[in-house]
Specification:
The structure is a homodimer. Chain A is α+β, with helices and mostly antiparallel strands and about 150 residues long. In chain A, about 25% of the residues lie in helices and about 20% in strands. Chain A folds into two domains: about 80 residues, Winged helix-like DNA-binding domain superfamily/Winged helix DNA-binding domain (Arc Repressor Mutant, subunit A), CATH 1.10.10; about 70 residues, 2-Layer Sandwich (Dna Ligase, domain 1). The first copy, chain A, has a three-stranded mixed beta sheet. Chain A has four helices and five strands. At the A-B interface, β1 and β5 of A face β1 and β5 of B. Chain A binds a DNA duplex (30 and 30 nucleotides) through α1 and α3.
DNA sequence: TTTTTTATTGAACCCGATGGCAACACTGCC
DNA sequence: GGCAGTGTTGCCATCGGGTTCAATAAAAAA
């Protein structure tokens, strides 16, 4: 799929893709940068960002834009939602299949043309729920913009 | 609720709250800064950020952390979801009540302690759907991290 | 090989947001 | 009133994710 877009499979682009496929979880750009740099020490962060963008537009990888944090990337499998730890920002897949036609629920009732939806669960990862002083702990203010059941 | 926290209702804090209550929509911090500065020309951006944070912790206002954009604030009414324009970043309330116990759907199936959820619709606002060159238009790449029905 | 086109590099830059800190202003208290 | 004590402000520097730019390198085309 590179042919018809005049894009080239450069060494950098290929290594980024290969390494991303080996990584599990939902790494951030700088994490990917760190890993790729072991094979290509001279690669620049800009190249990593640029190629992650290209690869995500091509559909080779998935770019996650979660709330209030840096972007994350992973290789595409099937669509799913995510759950994010409010303490350490760890992101896992949420065990819930896509809600089909979910956006149609509001389609006639808003002036927007609804194109999609995003669902994100928040909570505490196993480490942070047991060890509230785990590294990466941030002041935990219950996010009042979330719908938390009383 | 200021008493028991040793916080003071200063002039700046009060003006920020008053102005925010008059504004509709979901203004960003710099928008609030601009409005408040008409009454308090010497107020600093840092003060605005600090007080927005304080007010949101006190529950006086709501801090929205939507995906991939700056934070937005509004006065608290009842909980609701939001819809964001992918072109101009305009944010409206979504005409959909809170899904009660939504996070319980995954509660037994993840190692996380699920605390809440966030739902965000994305689409095109009336201006951008009719006038794709409206100010603020950004390159619209179909976000493949969304669940968009084919 | 030479030419043409696309990609990479490294640094500078952008922008939202935060932190440090001296000066300031409330709030008791004498 | 004068005086601590402490919360707050304004200012400025800084941070961090991310992007842009001119120069250079590399890949495809001729």
């Amino acid at each position: 799929m590179l042919k018809e877009t005049n894009l080239r499979m450069t060494r950098q682009r290929r290594v980024i893709l290969e390494e991303l496929r080996k990584m599990d979880g939902h790494p951030t750009a700088d994490k990917i940068y760190a890993v790729v740099r072991k094979r290509l020490p001279k690669i620049s962060l800009g190249t990593v960002y640029r190629n992650l963008e290209v690869l995500s537009v091509l559909g080779e990888i998935q770019k996650l834009e979660l709330s209030g944090s840096q972007k994350r990337f992973d290789c595409i499998s099937d669509f799913h939602y995510h759950i994010r730890c409010t303490c350490c920002d760890r992101v896992d897949d949420a065990p819930m299949g896509p809600l089909k036609d979910f956006e149609n629920r509001i389609n006639g009732e808003t002036s927007f043309k609804v194109l999609g939806h995003r669902i994100e669960f928040v909570g505490l990862c196993p480490d942070c729920r047991e060890n509230p002083t785990s590294p990466g702990l941030k002041k935990f203010i219950p996010p009042n913009h979330l719908h938390v059941e009383k």
